[in-house]
Amino acid sequence: MNIKTLSLTLILTLSFLVADEADNNNMPDMEKTGNWMFVPFAFSADTTGLAGGVAGIATGILQPQTTLVTALFYGAEQDIITNGLPETSNFSGGLISYTDVKVPYTNRFYLSFFGMISHYPQDVLYLDGSNDSDQEDGLVTAGDSDYFTFSLKYVLPIGEGVYNPDGLYKMKDGFAMGREDYGNGVPFETGRTSLSLMWFSQHQTMENWKESSPWNLSSSMPNWDDSGLRIALEHDNTDYDLNPSRGYNFKFQYSTDYGSEDNLQDWNNVEFRYSYYLALQNLSFTKQDVLAMSFWTSYSPSWDINEDILPGVALNRPPLWEGPRLGGYNRMRGYDLNRFSGKAAIYATAEYRAMLKWNPFNKTTMLGKWMPAKVDWLQVVGFVEAGRVADEYGFDLLTDMKYDVGMSLRAMVAELPVRFDVAYGEEGASMWVMYRQPFDF
To answer: Does 393 fall in a domain?
Structure first.
């Protein structure tokens, strides 16, 4: 789902992530339930064309820590090429997400579900995503992309998990209150730690291919389906998980496609992420300055670089959207989504996050009164990124790396960070609109 050159109009649509509009000095009571908001939206992207829809969100449905998001979307007719013949197609689909539902009669088990069905008229898939591959070799194709996950999380009864397993905070003006002494504690003795088990499934079709594509095998195109399990250990030792000013967090994750007969092939992957946050001296025009740094690495033991199941598709490799990959709205933002992929990957980034004292969207201003959601603060961010994929995990990962630099404008919209990133790499510039800070994924 490449959202490169996403229209700025989507920034306004992200207000659907609002559960409740609150007074500027009083945050919503965490015990409130069933707060709904519906917002129409419009956007434009390379893969979708001009599109729009309607989205709704509710927090506290049945339980105060839950979030329910729904959306339906449809796009204008696009000219496409299918098997060498001209046709037309429309972007379409819908999604539903319901997260952090506490299992009845338990205190530490939480269920989450995400489902999305969609059709993209001009998706871009990089079948060869090696470090020296050419951007022009991407396969432009219409196709379906359906994705589902179901997860069970257990918050361990250690550190903050003893007295706050729900991870709820008292909020004021976009800051978590009473957190001045939190962050940088002893691992597993302080902070929140969780174990999670997730089932995932994705169905991907490709309706077009070029003669140069390795998929040019017959009159029929194979689907690239996968499904499997993820096991993850996460530890957060920051002062506020959605926008940390100090502390650290890390995550270990193992994913496997166990080889269902409907899937293209089985595979496995391990990955690790570590992020650190350092509070800096505020400037005259800022109220919070943070140096945020993150390191991520991934390795697919099953990927056989010496054997292909199809021309250009290695035996037991993860799909293009899984495993060791770079490019997109979280890692290497100056490149297309999933632009690079290999048996191993490494990535590092640093961000300078400056939260401004100036906020034209404050509810006391004329502009703020017209906003559909409460905006607590604005944040200007400069960032640099470096990363590489390779055929093996070794010192090659530290040579001939890809780089990009960028700027970002972020806002706390109804207690959730929203960001607009612009990044430039050697293949050009990309723009991304997304919610949450990039280190959260």
So the answer is: yes
